[in-house]
Structures
1.
Amino acid sequence: MSAGELALSLRGVGLVRDGRALLDGIDWDVAHHERWVVLGRNGSGKTSLVRIASLYLHPSQGEVRVLGQLLGRTDVRTLRKRVALASSAMAQQLRPELTATDVVMTAKNAALEPWWHRYDDDDRDKAISLLERLHVGALAGRMVGTLSSGEQQRVLLARTLMAEPGLVLLDEPTAGLDLGGREELVASLAALASDPASPATVLVTHHVDEIPPGFSHVLLLREGSVLAAGPIAGTLTAANLSACFGLPLVLERRGTRWGAWADPAD
């Protein structure tokens, strides 16, 4: 694909910290219409990969292009406004007294506080509309610190859409959620995936049962390297998943969802 057709492109990307390679030789392309899942064990490099893609971390080597712009030759402060990032850790950075509307609205300027910039009624109305799209419109005036973990994650998902980004990165957004909260978030992600107007999306997770229906591709990381990458239909196999997590696994698809568990035969 040409650079214009890609929301994210990595070539030979590596990251070294304290003499240890956290990422090694990563080649990866995400097209504008694609929805990717990144799977891997703890320590496989998933979060480092997301931090590089979100322009908050420079690789030790290799080339990174985000929305056609080459990292190192562009103003990352401007480009970051076009890249939306949400994670379970981000909720901890929010001042508990902020309303859900303010959390979403401040994403217009990649900010965490409403007094850092000026906002008008149109901005507030758009934020409320996005909350309604994620089925949490009733929480618009609630302080985010009073919301459940699942509600907070759906508010953060609404936040990712405020600035009309070209790339959405979701780093383990289901971490810490109970079953109900997880399923509500997965349903919201599935709805976004089905909308052709939604931006390119990357979801990092440990669990195949959290892959939302409609996600199209999967990247499997093992010890900082790409084990396999491509369309889910041919890439997410029991053999690849077993190699990724280092133990024999059974993989099953039921309808639009996946499940995996240790192979009892081994």
2.
Amino acid sequence: MRLAKFLAHAGVASRRAAEAIVAEGRVTVAGEIVRDPARDVDGSEPVAVDRRTVRVAAEHVVYALHKPAGVVSTAKDTHGRRTVVELVRSPGTRLYPVGRLDADTTGLILLTDDGDLANRLTHPRYEVPKTYVAEVEGGPVRERALRALRDGVVLDDGPTAPAGVRQLRSGVLELTLREGRKRQVRRMCEHVGHPVKRLSRVAFGPLRLGDLAEGAVRRLSPAEVQRLRDAAARPDRGQG
């Protein structure tokens, strides 16, 4: 197994981040610094990051959390704010959030110690859909604006990909995106003249938030984890 993949499976970081960690000279194999992320490792030699030995867990875990507003989607926060990791009790497991939600956005976020799965679920290549419900200003949203959101709008970082958009009721939109830019839903809605008042993510790939209470967390079943793996198994070329 390549070193970067080993680190991802060990829950150190996503594969891309693991490659950077290796390149920085922070990883040793059998006591020697290795800077090649493609270096083969088979588990027989000790691997350490920043002098701390890491091992591939026998079984990874994935949790679903209904993130409350005001909680940040990081493992640590330099400003002392509460993080999503602090809401999940999993002694001895180093968890990472899968992607991010803005501090003021609520809803479904996943946490796992499986860096490879996290990378696949968030990498643009795999186009894993995320569904949001947005309460916007200036409702009802006219068909012209809905069509613009569906076709894609041009933001300051380029045009957005086509999205699934429908109006659930006056001023309340359901949006399904297959990309994950920073504050994308908010920027898209503002672009068409309907700034977001409240935003919640209700689905991540095949997994839905359902009736999970705000602030509550649950461990996913093996079947649910497999469904997530299947969703990120290969690039999806269509909206479905």
